[in-house]
Write a structure and sequence with these properties.
This protein is mostly helical. The chain has helices at about 1-15, 20-50. The protein is elongated and about 55 Å long. The model has no long low-confidence stretch (mean pLDDT about 90).
Length: about 50
């Protein structure tokens, strides 16, 4: 268990020091927004189906 937490900490440290290009960051934000919109649409469809 200790080894796993140590590996996790190292991975997080490595990931936080990685330099992300601005366009990659923007792509990730757009992907996240699209994902949220799809979830909202699915939820709305589900509610509409329940109401019928």
């Amino acid at each position: 268990m200790e080894k796993v937490s140590h590996m996790t900490r190292n991975a997080i440290r490595r990931a936080s020091t990685m330099e992300i290009p601005p366009h990659a960051k923007r792509n990730m934000q757009e992907l996240f927004v699209n994902f949220c919109l799809i979830l909202i649409c699915l939820l709305l469809i589900y509610i509409i189906v329940l109401l019928m």
